[in-house]
Amino acid sequence: MEAPDHPAIPFAFCHDQKNFRLLELPPDLLNVVTSADPPVLRIKSSESAPAHAVLCTDNLAYQIRQVQSSNSIFLTKPAKDNHSNDAASSLDSHLSAIATCKSTLELHPVSGSAIPHLKQCLPLYFSNEDGSRPTPVEGRSKRDVFSNIPLADQESERSWVELMAFELDGVSLRPNAEELRSVWKAIRTAADSQGFDLSQQFLARDAWKEAEEDGCPRELVHALLRKLSGNGSQIETDWMQLDRVKFVRWTGAMVLDRERDRIPGGVSITAFMEAWKDELPESWRAHASLDLLKGAYSQPTPSTIVITDDYDAIEAPAPSESTNNLSGKASLRSRKWHEKFKNARR
Amino acid sequence: MPSIPLYPPSHNQLDSCASNPSSASSSVSVSAPVAAPAPIPNPLPPLLHTPSGLAVIEMQGTINMPSAELVHDLDDDDDDDDDERRDGEEMEVEMDDESLAKGGQAAKHNKRPKSKAAYEAETAIGRLVFPYYSPTEPTDNKWMKRVHLYVGRHQRMTGEVKKLVNPLAVIRRRQQQGPVGSGKGTANEVSEKGADVDMDVDVDADTTRDGTAGENRNGSTAKGDDEEEELEIVDIVRYKILFSQRPEPVSG
Questions:
Q1: pLDDT per residue as tens digits for the range A223-263
Q2: Cβ contact A23–B43 (<8 Å)
Q3: Do the chains contact at A11 and B71, CB–CB below 8 Å?
Q4: Which of A14, A73, A127, A275 is most buried, with most CB under 10 Å away?
Q5: What DSSP element (H or E) covers B94?
């Protein structure tokens, strides 16, 4: 048997089995969990089927997959030897298997945009013909909405800004295109009447005063300015500077969307470009270019242009792409799994 | 579905849940500040140590244990002469070899603890040996290449210590943090205290066995249980002992 100078460690099975699960930690997540001040992770799942469980940090998201094993995986813990008359062992502790796991949980990185999720669950904010703006009585806070999006919160926040979603009295909303147009109109009017230039720095409160007089909530103006400025914080008090590319692109899409309502079949490119430039501050007129709208429009004829339906989701990576990557990786992995056990059997 | 929080490891509340037969019999005072019980020495080589003492042993195959009910049945009509009956209890180790089971039984017989509590709690499987491990040269990791698990006197499994490519987080349902009303996610000291109080209630519930203590406890913590499930990472395991081969016979 074993050499005497190598002490045997008694190994026992504890009948009071505990419930533990084993979760594989990819390097990125391991760094987070073992950092000096680790955050609380969250397991989320989408409300609509298929509801995969997704483990999220602020900026990472992993789909959880349960992987069955034909092996027995014991979780062991040192336990005190209760018997005093055991002369065979020089140690006074042994190993006790306190849990048996038939599966482990694997994590697969998930990427994608939260825009489809937000579009699905955020009610539209709009004006009635008489100018009144109904607020849904029942609604969910931003926090509640985010906790149901199976993605990292940072990703959800990005999409939130992208869609110009906002919270009004604790209810999360997103504006429809018409509402955005009227906000934009109010901001332009404010710029004209107060003489500030949207291509330069200006005070946000100068911009929303006008919109508020039209009955438009300040939160919505902020949501629009936040998206167009590219930096989210302190819009209320600080001088702000619009991001030229974002701004020019957004106005282009807005104008094209407006034109579609007028002429659904497509508007002439020349007319559209003129209308677009008219929305821009003088110094930015030259920056209007169809390249900025790549992917957001189609051309029914060479001289006409029409906006695509989901143009507001264009900036984000297409979700279908990420799903393909995921399944590709998974099949590679499962193949390896079989090879591993084939080798072990030999 | 609301999101479920998964708390990172705190390394302050190790023993409150993990099985520890000896602590169940020792009483813990609620009011006095509880001194942490002396840690149980970890018999494994230090490389395999984790703050909580948890380790992972994986083997190809299944070990068939007598069901807990069987053990309890035996225990219920416990008297001085039931040693015979216990010896008759079968432990099957399903490794394509029946003699393994008999060997295991023999080993158990030799080492079987006399104390009733210990017997209830565990069934011996075998003994782990690290034949190349030397405590004097702990930095030399060649010992990881071989681990034996002796089951009885005639069977041996050979395995190795493997570094996990992706370390494993050991997760469990988070325990209630003391009385309702104490805030969630407070300082570690508070949660440690809470765990101790809970443990004490557990001990009571176990010893009275009439269900009342257990009910009270459920009542006092029901709010938290119903509201939302909480998980925590108890520890992170970076190595595992893997037995991927069939057992082989050895001569005594």
A1: 888 888 866 555 656 677 888 888 888 888 888 888 888 88
A2: no
A3: no
A4: A14
A5: strand B92-94
